[in-house]
Write a structure and sequence with these properties.
The protein has 458 residues and is mainly beta. The chain is built from one helix and 24 strands. It has a single domain, classed as Porin, CATH 2.40.160.
Length: 458
């Protein structure tokens, strides 16, 4: 039995390492705590540096100067993850770092100006994940069934595959962000504190969680017409949220040792999965009509499909990756949230033109009550060498959004390519993206952003 457990654990580690598209990498920075390697500490570290050229929304200023475009370099993610297997059943995961540091913002809380701790300098480290986990039923102990229970600040947030995606191995340069619909409102960087259960039954995988959302207290604008009411995040004495994701894996069975779902296996696995998930939080938003406050539940649903497999002649090492997800979001009447990743812009005082409804910089309507359909696909180009210096993977993505708060739906796209120097461990990604810019609820156009990402992952 001991040898079986050891084999299962080492198999999980090997699968996780091989999944990054670099078979030479092995188990990475893994430190055994006993002779047979069943107790260990694994350290993962990565950084993602972005160089960008961005068309700004109308009404944007950067550091006090009006701007229609911007070029910059910033730290999208600088992270360290510690994963400790302290016994055959007991595991601890901690994950910390910084995100979104630019030349104008991203510094430690409360910093401002241009001094030693300026507004873009010396960002504060914070914990992204911190949880304990106990394997109640290990793989192999109860035929096809396994079960682990855990608790803490965790990433088992249900809803969709991309809601629990790994940031190390995306097909595109990054996630579309609406896959984390609560981001930095009632969660902490896509995490909540609570309890979770995970496991498998054969090819079926399940994840469930019961969480205490972080408090929100935005004040709704009082209106006289109920049809004009706009829901905002205000959950008072928060009620517990529930989340889940259920997936059937038709071909290769993916590792669920950690929650992070792979974006592209770069031809190292044969995967086809169908999944569905949910998130619900009672009385999570509020509206105000004629001075009367009304509370609304947040109910989020999704269905998705993921395909990743080698194709063609084996010696050519070609592969395809595709993912499609449909989200149905209900945050309450006319709820809309505008976001811009690493946004360096601020509003221009007394702007003479028609400013963007979403705000300055690269903000856009990102999530809201309504529907979102997102699809991405990529193709790993053939190679002839046994160990090619570079593998190239062009990709494209399409997003359709239809929000209740806007009179017009939107379509946007991303195109780019991954240049793998050593799988995901050393890669360069280029991407051009469009985003909708609304100046009225029914009048929109597209603006663009080019990103060059440099990623190192150990």
């Amino acid at each position: 039995m001991r040898n079986l457990i050891k084999g299962l654990i080492l198999s999980c580690i090997g699968t996780a390492a091989f999944a990054q598209g670099s078979p030479d990498y092995g188990a990475g920075m893994k430190f055994n705590l006993n002779d047979d390697g069943t107790k260990y500490l694994r350290v993962l570290a990565w950084n993602q540096i972005w160089l960008r050229s961005t068309e700004m929304n109308p009404g944007t200023s950067i550091n006090g100067e009006e701007a229609t475009s911007s070029t910059d370099i910033g730290n999208r993610r600088l992270r360290i993850l510690l994963h400790a297997q302290l016994s055959k059943r007991y595991m601890i995961v901690t994950h910390f770092g910084i995100n979104n540091q630019t030349f104008t913002n991203g510094g430690a809380a409360g910093t401002s100006g241009t001094g030693a701790y300026g507004q873009g300098k010396k960002p504060g480290l914070f914990f992204t994940d911190a949880w304990n986990e106990y394997a109640v039923v290990l793989p192999g102990e109860a035929n096809k069934f396994s079960l682990s229970l855990g608790g803490g600040l965790h990433y088992y947030m249900g809803l969709s595959r991309m809601t629990m995606s790994s940031t190390l191995n995306y097909l595109t340069v990054d996630a579309p962000i609406f896959n984390w619909p609560l981001i930095e409102n009632s969660d902490q960087f896509a995490r909540q504190m609570g309890l979770f259960a995970k496991g498998k039954y054969g090819h079926f995988e399940y994840r469930l969680s019961y969480n205490k959302p972080f408090a929100t207290n935005q004040v709704p604008v009082d209106v006289t017409d109920a049809s004009a009411a706009v829901a905002v995040d205000n959950n008072g004495n928060t009620k517990w949220s529930k989340a889940g994701y259920f997936e059937y894996q038709f071909f290769d069975i993916e590792s669920n040792l950690l929650p992070y779902k792979v974006g592209t296996y770069v031809g190292t696995k044969k995967v086809f999965n169908l999944g569905a998930g949910f998130y619900s939080a009672p009385d999570a938003t509020r509206t105000s009509v004629n001075g009367v406050i009304d509370k609304h539940n947040i109910t989020l649903l999704s269905a998705d499909a993921f395909l990743d497999m080698p194709i063609g002649k084996k010696e050519k090492k070609m592969a395809i990756t595709a993912y499609s997800v449909f989200y149905n979001y209900d945050f309450g009447p006319n709820y809309l949230r505008n976001l811009g990743i690493m946004n360096v812009g601020s509003a221009t005082p007394d702007f003479a033109g028609q400013a963007a409804l979403a705000g300055p910089g690269n903000t856009q309507p990102t999530m809201g009550t309504g529907n979102i359909w997102y699809t991405q696909a990529g193709f790993l180009l053939p190679c002839s060498a046994e160990k090619p210096k570079v593998r190239i993977q062009p990709f494209g993505a399409y997003t359709y959004k239809d929000f209740e708060a806007l009179d017009k739906s939107s379509s946007q796209f991303d195109v780019g390519a991954n240049f793998f120097l050593d799988g995901h461990h050393a890669k360069i990604t280029t991407q051009y993206s469009t985003r909708p810019v609304y100046v009225t609820k029914s009048d929109s156009s597209l603006k663009g952003e080019f990103i060059l990402q440099l990623q190192i992952y150990l």
